[in-house]
Specification:
With 214 residues, this protein is α+β, with helices and mostly antiparallel strands. It has helices at 7-35, 101-112, 153-159, 190-194, and strands spanning 54-59, 78-79, 85-88, 92-95, 121-127, 132-137, 143-146, 172-177, 183-188, 210-213. It has two domains: 54-127, wza like domain (wza like fold, 2-Layer Sandwich); 132-213, Roll (Outer membrane lipoprotein wza fold like). Helices cover 25% and strands 23% of the residues. A hairpin with a 3-residue loop joins β3 (85-88) and β4 (92-95). The longest helix has 29 residues, at 7-35. The protein is elongated and about 60 Å long.
Length: 214
């Protein structure tokens, strides 16, 4: 005849049963989370190379095909000239205007294929010097600022040390030159933005934009 379990033994068995159930639930949750596909971040548009940028270019197994030595013994680099072009051995003069790093890599590969069998070209931006915006007028630190890769108007004003007490906050303008060479003026009302109104005017600046604070 089986002896009845004591109250203490019953409590221990009940606690063990609850712990086992909780452990199974935790495992099931982890498995479900692992099986749930993660949301991929929306890719940003590729950065287009600007005059003044320094590119790092190399060709696999071709140590002679690389940019000139950097200043002060730094890594080799290829300077994009003011007209948006640069030169590379065997490839000659390359036009980088409006092109991403991936596009330049493909263009270099196509040109070098005439001289090298299946060239493996690597291109990267070593220094972003050409992606500049300018803030002038009634700000504490007017000047040009390198942006990496993008900033909006409020961020640019912050980089310039903020506005002075004499600034006309309702008359700020962004001067932008289009691809055709025409200049356009975009209004920016600082007082609206700091109040959370008309936030669409806090646009992302493009290289060469000038923020004018009267």
């Amino acid at each position: 005849m089986r002896r009845p379990l004591s109250r203490g033994t019953c409590r221990i068995l009940l606690a063990l049963s609850l712990c086992g159930a909780l452990a199974q639930t935790a495992v099931a949750q982890k498995v479900a989370m692992a099986q749930t596909p993660a949301r991929a971040a929306a890719p940003e548009a590729g950065y287009t190379v600007k005059p003044g940028d320094i590119l790092s270019i190399s060709v696999w197994k071709e140590p002679d095909l690389q940019g000139p030595a950097g200043a002060a013994g730094g890594p080799p680099g290829v300077l994009v000239r003011p007209d948006g072009t640069f030169s590379f051995p065997l490839a000659g003069q390359m036009d980088a205007r409006g092109k991403t790093v991936q596009e330049l890599q493909q263009l270099l590969t196509d040109r070098l294929r005439k001289f090298i069998s299946d060239p493996v070209v690597t291109v990267s931006v070593q220094q972003i010097n050409g992606n500049k915006v300018y803030v002038i007028g009634q700000v504490n630190k007017p000047g040009d600022f390198i942006v990496n890769p993008k900033v909006d108007v409020m961020q640019a004003l912050s980089m310039a040390g903020g506005t002075t007490p004499f600034a006309a906050l309702g008359g700020i303008m962004i001067l932008r030159r289009t691809d055709s060479g025409q200049q356009m003026a975009l209004p920016f009302r600082y007082t609206d933005v700091v109040r959370g109104k008309n936030l669409a005017q806090n646009i992302m600046l493009q290289a060469g934009d000038v923020v004018v604070v009267p």
